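Schema walkthrough. Field components (list of strings):
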Amino acid sequence: MMNSMNNVEFLNELVNSKFNVVKTEIINAEQMSFIVDSRDVHTLLTLLKTSGWKQLSYLSAIDWIKEDEFELVYIVFNWDRPVHIQVRTRIKRDRENASFETIIPIYPGAKYYEREVHEFFGIKFPGNPDFHKQLILENWDDMPPLLKDFDPRAYSDSHFEKRDYPEKHINLNNQESKQEKRQKRNLKSLLLRNGGKK
Amino acid sequence: MKSTKFSPMTQEQIDKKWWEIGNYFRRNSLWMLMYCTGCCAIELPPAMTSAYDMERLGMGPMATPRQADVLLVTGYLSLKTLRRLIYTYEQMSEPKYVVGFGSCTINGGIYHDSHAVINKLDQYIPVDVYVAGCMPNTEAVMNGFTDLMGMIKNKTARGWLDYKERNDWYKKNQLDSLGEVLVHDEFHE
Amino acid sequence: MVVNILVGLGVALFGFVLQTAMGGINRKIVARVQKRIGPKWYQEFIDIFKLFSKRSVSHGWIFDFGVIMALGGIIATAMFMPVTANIIAFEGYDNFFIFVYLLAVGMLGMAMSASGSGNPLASIGVMRALTTMLAYEVPFMIVVMTIIKLTGGTSSVSEIAAFQQIAGNNWFIIALPLGGIVAIISLMGMLGKKPFETYIAPAEIASGPMVEYGGKQLGMLFVMHEITVFIEVSLFIHLFLGGAATLGVYLLKYFLVYTALNLISSVYARFKIDQVVVFFYKWPLFMAVTQAIIAIYLGWVI
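Field assembly_structure (string):
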């Protein structure tokens, strides 16, 4: 049985010898992250699956709105060598047409993860027969909600009735804050100490 | 021959008397259906077990909506759970009561600006008692239950009648926020 | 004849009132075991009358008819039950096998009604109830057959009780110790007490057969359940505890048996259905067969 550090070294060698990895990050003995080019993702995942990383634990996405990119994160797990691997890649952030080839041929379980990502980020997965069907948000009628330019407060205000409170409840918020009180007190004590001079 | 001592009661008065007798039984045996969606559900174990012992008030947990009298909505409701809550509420046998727990059911609480969480429960189903707090104390929860019993005694727990009378209004609010209450997709037939 | 029927209905009503009160008292006792105050002793009456005061939903005529059939079948069974040596509605008809067969009518009605509701959990619950019945009846029947053999071939419940009283209060639970243990375990299975309450399992299959009941139908099922418990506990008292000469003795024995069973069940967790069947077919069956061989062929009766 190999110890966990050996696993990390093994992986480093396995991946870096065959792929052009943009960045390798060893988070700890049980977690590693590879940032690769989007063209290499499918071959890398195939390699990892044949080497024992049989389980796709999660597929998520991150919206980097300033860099105009989506980042896809595939997390795979091996039951013999206990290392979680994150395969990260960046694709162009395009609200209408952002798309990425499905990984169903490699991991069939990705079907539902891809539906979820499509629902929350609007990324299309050609090759997945029903990525466009609804999964979690039932009857959603707006833009995908986890995009950074979606305004949840506006959506909430327009869809859900708010409770109206009588005026006297709101007045409580106009009281002096504790910080202001403390500053005033400090100022007063300073004045007293200096004999009335600032 | 007409009796001089007793004037016969009208049907309405007899019904009222029966209803009052029924109210005695109903308020002393409230069976709960716990809809544990949020964190306020954690207040129910101490209320049920030896610390506060809600069985001494005749309350007890029940397994299905048909058997239950009180629906406890413990915490925030996302759109998806609100749909299930409405099915559940409509399945309960009358008379039925609803207790809303925590600030999430009152005004959305810390989720007031979320895209997925509703803000005001009594917009969608009638709520008889609200227990405020984030989260409410167990004493507050027990107080809410005794309040509900008092309301049943005073005949002010009329939420289920309200749901019948103003059904159009409730249905309209449900449709406004949810689109449609019954979802048609591959997971629902 | 009319008097007999009235006495029989009186016995059924007595059984309902007795068992409902006992149920409430036992809820209080179990609450004290768990360091709680517990409900009022008449809480079960409040529960049942509340259920009758609610409005209920029907799921078709089989659903409604099955409930009435279950309640009617159980009341009919309770009418034959002797309470003491003197209080008995139909003398000479209190045969053990009459109870076994008539109890099945009530159970069948409940099974029919639960299946009529169309809920899959109800069907699972009914199936589990029948499986549990199959499991506990075999060892229980063997023990009762042994008793019938020892009393000289009479299967009348009141005569078996009288036999024990004539033999100097030599109760069968002491005379046949192994059989007595088997009977206690089987009784727990019959009443659906904790290790064997697989078929109502609230957290697992949402109270099984009762899943679609609410309001008046559930109230009728509760009444039916109370009378069933009365019949089963009474059978145990008459067959194994020497019956009762007076009403006071009967009430005392009833209270002791039911409370003991409740205390046992309050410290147990629930079996799975396969564990129930394997359990009943292993030790109770073995003990029952051993007891029968010892008592009948070797003649060793204490």
